[in-house]
Amino acid sequence: MIRTTPFHERTAALNETGIWEHWSNHLVASRYQMSEKFEYFAIRNTAGLFDTSPLYKYRIHGPAAERFLAGVLARDIRTCPVGRGQYTAWCDDRGFVVEDGVILHVAPDEYLLTAAEPNLAYFQALIDGLDVAVDDVSADWGVLAVQGPRSRELLAALAPEVARLAYFDVIATKIAKVPVHVSRTGYTGDLGFEIWVPAADALAVWDAVWGVSRGRGVIPFGMTALYMARIEAGLVLLDVDFNSSRFAWTDADRTTPIELGLGWMFRDIGADDRTFLGHEAIRREIATTSSRWRLSGLILDWQDYDRIFDAAGLIPPKDHTPVQDEYYVYDDELNQLGYATSQMYSPILQRHIALARVPLDRTAPGSRVKLELGVSHRYEYFDAHVARLPLFNPERRTA
Amino acid sequence: MPKSTAPATKRATSKSVGAKAAPKASATRGAAARPAGSKRDGAADHAWDAIVIGGGHNGLTNAAYLAKAGLRTLVLERRHLVGGAAITEELRPGYWFTTFSYALSLLRPDIIHELELTRHGFMPILMPTTFCPMENGDYLLLGQDHGENHREIARHSRHDADAYDAFNHDVLKVCQAIKPLLDAAPPDIFSDDPEELVALAMLGSRFRRLDRKVLHDAVRLLTGSAADFLDDYFESDILKGYIASSSIIGTKVGPYSQGSGLVLLYHLMGEHDGEFGAWAFHKRGNGGFTQLLAKAAESFGVEIRLESPVESVITSGGRATGVALADGREFHAPIVVSALDPRRTFLELVDPRQLPTDLVDAITRFRFQGTSAKVNFALDGVPRYPALGDRTDQYRGFTNIGPSMEYLERAFDDAKYGAFSTRPYLDCAIQSQVDPDMAPPGKAVMSCFVQYAPYHLRESDWDTQRQPLGDTVQATLESFFPGFGDLVLQREVQTPLDIERTVGLSEGNIFAGEFLAPQMYFFRPAPGWSQYRTPIEGYYQCGSGTHPGGCVMGAPGKLAAERIIRDRGRAVAPDRANAVARDRQGAVARA
């Protein structure tokens, strides 16, 4: 039986389309109104509300919590004091990504971690006698994301201290008298926050946020608008841009964090004495630059795009709907170089863009490649160039 | 293909033109009267390759392209802000008014890319709905869902619901065929230059390749009436009224007039992210757009000087050498570009006696006769439409007060006899519903494009009729939205006379000259002068009075820059340039 999120009573009333999809056995809106693009513009121009409750959530606590996480997570948790969070990944001992998520250091010896898929048994198997517990608290919390340029002032009207949060800060505060965690995080690449609220009190917090939003053009947004924003922001999605190493059949379906564009997580690895899972392989990959490819941005050449469609007698489509599927990337002689995993027409960049795996010798911004797409029932090869991720990165995101 | 048939048509008022030129009385001085090379003021310290007169969107676009090509380019704008008619002003604290031009659609996509506008914050926000109230209290509300639109139209006519798809498909085919004409200068049909003959042949062959029906539809639209075209598809008054509203914008025609089809086609050819006929509201209005366009221009090295009204173009030996400002300052450059309308470009900035008689005659005949006004409101809240209760999502796009072709034609009837419409056509947009930063939380700003408001009033004048026009517009709105008047916090009325005075557009014509077949393409603004040159060497035109015309399109600015850059390349071989110039003069004489 499908479940609903703690905010469902409110989101259901706002969903004008009747279109829902399933996310980790929860009902979530694909879009709330007929135009997901209008929802997308709320994220980029005002603020949008997103119910991200179906994420798996783990509470890691106990005197050895930091020690445990330092050995499990690829990014050094010791640099994450109470009141801070990290976007992180965890790898297997061959240095392949198991999954990624956001970890919040909410209290001494206490962390909250999100994940797209279940990881409880995986983490518990790694405890190895340490004085730490990993609890699945997925159903205990509702998580409401408030994303967009106006998100800070909206939430500050409810909890003034939110205005002081730096990028990836987290605080315990109250909204509508309900104790909540508010983190300056999100999956849109914009200024944004996420509110962790005990599930039983979720509606009160929703109502408070909705109350200060009225008359300001703030609307809820669904999965499609979220995917649009995340592709522009170069934020990877499990089972789209990468697969969990745990369940891959071959290494072709595995990826290292460096290949996934997360090499920045290891900037200080020289001074990092941890023996975290995968560290040897990752150190070796860095030392020998043995990555097979790197996830990069692609920007299609607009003139070539128009020319190909014109030649086929078609009006060049500029469809913002995210296509989260594989399309192949070639060189000029049509030798396959790699493949794109997500693509769309970006309204804010006014270009067709993609996230793609390209070989290391093509990762320099401006490197030319061709993307294979079907036009009028045959493949055509579109000129594109490689660009640094994220493709859209407004100052306000971190300012 | 665009997935949605949503709002199939819409429009914008527009055109830029910043600097108002010298008053007519002084037009005869200028050029010849002023000795070339006199260097006053500190201007001589700067060596400019090009000077653009007027910082409207075409002037800015032109300057940006020139600077990108390496020319040291100066823009001189008469007012305290750039943008021409595409400006946004905070007329009341927290309330931002799109004073004149109010939506974006025809802006050429290549300009967005080539001038790297997204780097500077380009943000065209989708307007997902079109709301058409009816006089009986019913309405037509179109949105982004094809099935919902079908059902909504079927409420008014089952036949039309299906016919709407056919109409959109047929019109898209015409748009696809015609669109390339917007992105290239017209060939010069009066020239013997082999390059022009090749271009003409290519144009001909392009049309020969078209499907017969598409070509016929194109000609019907380009020459006929919107009513004739729409009657072939539809029976319902509200749908025809809505679409036909796009056939009268900015032009003194009614939907039954021959020529209205062309205006309709222009507005259908706009696009938002590849979707023809869709309109966007730029962040902070079209003023937000021109501000970032100015930033883009500056990033290429353009210098913009505000409050610098140009009085005349300085010429010497038949070529332009600079400009003189009203305050006596002079700026010198071998290239001078006028972004003003044809009347100012040819009859005011230079001495018409320097020009061929046939050109002066053609420009004198060029029809402006502005017929549009703007009434902008600051509102205490969003108006209520009784049939929709407390809903407000219908206001996320245009609200079209033109419930039938007859309503539009009767509004036109008043204008034919020199009066403004007693029951005007209104194209409204509650812009704060699309971009909430336009008004304080819970409040609203509403832009109303008004037609017909003829520049030449028979019985009165606009200084007398300004507020009566505002009252008429408000009363019309009150009849559709009971209680509207109680919401009004502030009202701004911009008559055609105000548009002329403030923006500099002759007779307040928003397109810098009407969209009528004899004033388009080969003939815009005059036969033989559709390629952005003028008879004065080094003096060019880039305003909306040139091809492809008005609306915030930018194409005239860009195409003029391409012409200038090509001519400059040719200038390296002076014999060739002289030959071209001679050929041109000869062509005019023959014409």
Question: Could you describe the 3D structure shown?
Answer:
The complex is a heterodimer of chains A (399) and B (591). Chain A is an alpha+beta fold and 399 residues long. Helices cover 20% and strands 31% of the residues of chain A. Chain A contains nine helices and 19 strands. In chain A, α2 crosses α7. With 591 residues, chain B is of the alpha/beta class. Helix content of chain B is 36%, strand content 16%. Chain B is globular. The N terminus and C terminus of chain B are likely disordered. The interface between A and B is medium-sized, with 30 and 36 residues.
Descriptive labels:
heterodimer; A: 399 residues; alpha+beta; Gyrase A, domain 2; Alpha-Beta Plaits; Elongation Factor Tu (Ef-tu), domain 3; 3 domains; six-stranded antiparallel beta barrel; 9 helices; 19 strands; 20% helix; B: 591 residues; alpha/beta; Polyamine Oxidase, Chain A, domain 2; seven-stranded mixed sheet; five-stranded parallel sheet; 18 helices; globular
The residue ranges of chain A in which pLDDT falls below 50 over 5 or more consecutive positions are: none
Under CATH at level 1, the class of the largest domain in chain B stands as: Alpha Beta
> CATH topology of the largest domain in chain B, anyone?
Polyamine Oxidase, Chain A, domain 2
Q: What's the quaternary structure here? A: heterodimer
The overall strand count of chain B is 21
- Helical residue percent of chain A? 10-25%
Number of DSSP-assigned strands of chain A:
19
Q: Report strand order across the widest sheet of chain A.
A: 10-11-12-9-3-13
Number of individual domains of chain A: 3
Fraction of residues in β-strands of chain A = 25-35%
Rg of chain A over CA atoms, rounded to whole Å, is: 21 Å
Contiguous helical run count of chain B: 18
Let me know the largest β-sheet of chain A: 6 strands, mixed
- Do you know the CATH architecture of the largest domain in chain A? 2-Layer Sandwich
Shape of chain B: globular
Radius of gyration of chain B: 23 Å
What is the second-level CATH architecture of the largest domain in chain B? Alpha-Beta Complex
